[in-house]
Amino acid sequence: MKSKVYFTREITPEAVVKLYHALGVSLPGKVAVKVHSGEKGNQNFLHPEFWKPMVDEVQGTIVECNTAYGDATTGVRDNTDSHRKLLEEHGWTKYFPVDLMDAEGPDVIWPISNGKVLKENHLGKNIVNYDSMLVLAHFKGHPMGGYGGALKQLSIGCASRAGKALIHSAGATDDRFETWQKHASSVVFPEAMADAASSVVAHFQGKIAFINVMKNLSVDCDCCAVAEDPCMKDIGILASLDPVAIDQACIDLVVNSDDPGKEHFMERVNSRNGIHTIEAAADLGYGSREYELIEL
Predict the structure, then answer these.
(1) End-to-end Cα separation, the chain, in angstroms
(2) Any idea where the DUF362 domain is (predicted)?
(3) Which of 4, 28, 128, 129 is 20 to 30 Å from the Cα of 218, by its Cα?
(4) Is the pLDDT higher at 73 or at 63?
(5) Cβ(13)–Cβ(48) under 8 Å?
(6) E strands of 91-240, at which residues?
(7) Residue 1's pLDDT is what?
(8) What are 192-209's pLDDT values in tens digits?
(9) What structural domains does the chain harbor?
(10) pTM for this prediction
(11) How far does Cα 64 stand from its chain's mean position?
C-alpha cells in the first residue's frame, strides 16, 4: 500500500498544525521536536515563531545536537556554550524548552543491524528521554547531501559530533576534524545517512511523524552562515508518517514545478547524488518511494 503524504500550498503556522492532524496520530508521552535551529548569519531557516503553534500542540521539547563543523565555516554550533547562546539569540529558548541532546556525554550508541555502510549510530544521549518524535524539516538544498529534509534530520540532525563524523566518513573515523580528510564518496555518504536514520526510526517504533516545509528554497542548507538566496518560489507544506515518502514527494514537487529555478535546485541535488539517500532508505525497508499525495 502506498504511503500517504498530505500536502497544502498554504504556508502558515496554522497549516502546519492542520497537516499534523490530518495524519490521525497523537504522539504519546514526552515529545522530542527536531528542528534545524539555523546557523549564525543564515537568512533562510524557519524561525521559532513559525513552528510555535505546532510545538505547543504536542507540548514538545525542541531538540538539537552540536555540529561537526566549526571555525572552518564560521559556524558557532559546534560547541555547547556558543550553540546555546545562538539558540537564545534565535529565539528558541524564548518560546520552548530546549534540549541540546549531546551537551553532556557519553553518547548513546545504537546498533544498525542491516546497514549498508554503518554498524552503529552515535547520538546525543538525551534522545532516550523521549517517548516519541516530531521531525520538523525545512526542505532545501544542501552543499554536501544535495538536499535536506526528513532523512537528514533523522541522521545528521540527531547524531552527536562523533556520530556526524562517522556518517560523513562512512564509519572511518569519529573524529570531527579528521572526518573532513576522510569524507565518504557521493555514493557511500548518502547510504551512511540512510543507515543512521534507520536507527532513529527503529527506536521510536511508529511513534514518529514528519513535516517538511518547502519555503525559502535555497540550494544551501540552514547550516550555512552565508547561504544563497532562494532560487524558487515557495511550494507548500507536507506531512507523513513515512520519511522516505515525504522526501520523495518534495523532490517530485520540485521536478514537476513550472518554476525556472528548479533547474538550479535540482543541479545541486543531482550533483551530490542526493536522491541516493532516498533510494538507500527505501532499500533498507523503513519507508517507500511510492506514495499517495493528498492535497488539503
Answers:
(1) 21
(2) 31-252
(3) 4
(4) 63
(5) no
(6) 98-100, 108-111, 120-123, 132-138, 140-142, 146-148, 208-214, 236-240
(7) 83
(8) 999 999 999 999 999 999
(9) 3-295 (3.40.50)
(10) 0.96
(11) 10
